[in-house]
Every structure is written in structure tokens, then in C-alpha cells.
Amino acid sequence: MDQPDPTLPAMPGHRLARGVSRLLRSMDHAVLTEFVPSRGLRVDVISMGPKGEFWIVECKSCRADFMGDRKWQGYLEWCDRYFWAVDCDFPTELLPPDTGLICADAYGAEIQRMAPETRLAGARRSRVMRDFARCSALRLQGLTDPDGFSAAS
């Protein structure tokens, strides 16, 4: 009997995020998952491209997951492009046509529809870039020195 892949995330949305992250890395984007751009918001995936552009990707594992999402429009003001990531069985007609679409699984992803670009204002871009860098640095420190977080408390 085949053993399950121990590196495979247990939650369907996390599997989509992993595939999306692999796609974005192949496009030379730096990627963070579970990023908080503002109090009350948490995006599934945010990436910074090689020219400093920010993309947000929300991963939806099923119809109910999408229908229950009441916050997604609040994410639009925090990125240059906004995408949905779904698996190949998701009813894509539910998704707003003026957003990007990515078909993903745990191992990879493909852009089906490029998101329109709405450039961030300079002050907002500066804030997102600062918060992105700070979050990245703190996560890296947590990996290299897990006990170091208790010293900052």
C-alpha cells in the first residue's frame, strides 16, 4: 500500500496555496502565505514580483468556501493584481470575471485568466513592501531560532 506524502498539506486550501506558490516562484516572485495586510484581513498567498508588483491569490477549495468569503473585496486595495486559485473541478462561473483565475493542485498551478492590473498608490505600495519584508524576516528568524520569539514577548 502506498504511504501518504508527509509533505502534503492536510487542508485542501493549503494544498492549492502550495501549488500556487510553486507557480509564482517559477515566475521569479517572492511568496508568503497567510499574510495579514491589515487588521481583520488575511490573504492566502501574496507575492512580490521582480519589479515590486504585488499579487494576491485567494485559494478556494469548494463552492461553500467561496460563498462564505465576505472579505475578498477588501483585499483588492492591497495588490496590483488579484487572483482566485481553484482546482480543476471548481465551478468557475461563480468567480467574478474581472479577476484573475489560476487552476492549481498541491504540485503546481497554471494561470487560466490574467488578472487586470490596478497599480497600488505609492504610499500603499511602501506599506505593503515594508510589511512583506518584516513578515518575511520574522518568519525566517523563527525557523533559524524558534526560541528567539520568546525574548521579544
Write the topology of this structure.
Layout: H1 12-26, E1 30-35, E2 43-48, E3 54-59, H2 63-67, H3 72-75, E4 81-86, E5 100-105, E6 108-113, H4 122-144, H5 148-152
Parallel strand pairs: 3-4, 4-5
Antiparallel strand pairs: 1-2, 2-3, 5-6
Rg: 16 Å
> How many extended strands?
6
Task: Please trace the helix and strand order, writing H or E for each element.
Answer: HEEEHHEEEHH
Apparent shape:
globular
Mean of the pLDDT scores? 92
Side by side, the strands of the main sheet go 1-2-3-4-5-6
What does this structure look like?
The structure is a single chain. This protein is α/β, with parallel strands linked by helices and 153 residues long. The protein is built from 5 helices and 6 strands, in the order αβββααβββαα. Strands 1-2-3-4-5-6 form a 6-stranded mixed β-sheet. The longest helix is centred in the last third of the chain and has 23 residues. It is globular, with a radius of gyration of 16 Å.
Condensed summary:
34% of the residues lie in helices and 24% in strands. The chain is built from 5 helices and 6 strands. The chain has a 6-stranded mixed beta sheet.
